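From the thread on structure requests for the teaching lab: each student submitted one protein with a one-line request. Submission from student K.M.:

"Model Serine acetyltransferase from Zunongwangia profunda, tokens only."
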Amino acid sequence: MIREIQSDYRRYRQYGAHPIVIVFLTQGFWALFQYRVAHKIYKSKFPAFSKTLQLICVFWQKWIEIITGISIPFSAKIGEGCYIGHFGNIIINANAIIGEMCNISQGVTIGVSGRGANRGVPKIGNRVYIGANAIIAGKIEVGDDCVIAANSLLTKSVTAGVTVLGVPAIIVNRNSSKGYI
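Reply posted by the TA:
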């Protein structure tokens, strides 16, 4: 848990944020910190102990969600070095999987969609940049180094290193997320 928090912190430092600003004024960091602690408790091997702490974490998560507008359930899987740059309206499904070194912009939804065998949540690769107000939904996979442009609706899997744009999102080029991350 400490390693993941440090990795998230380093990502904020890369963008030039002062340590005091990160810790006391950056809502994205608060939400990630709360998630990291709650996820560690969720994965704990001490059931009686963890159930009590999980209850506390549920209320803590709700408080963080209210003041930041960012909902990250403790059961989601988020890799190290995540960066949430702006306040609010970020919803991540409890079963979502997000890789390492990803950027999540404001207004993003990573959620469930589909019917029957196609119903599910996304699995997002490493170093993926998700633009403002993008929606990624359904049982899909997003390859490493992708860019999901602002205001896009992605409901189909995409391979690594592409940029998608639109509603529904389509591949517009083979530029990777290098330079965005």
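TA comment: The chain has a mean pLDDT of 93. The first helix runs from residue 2 to 14.
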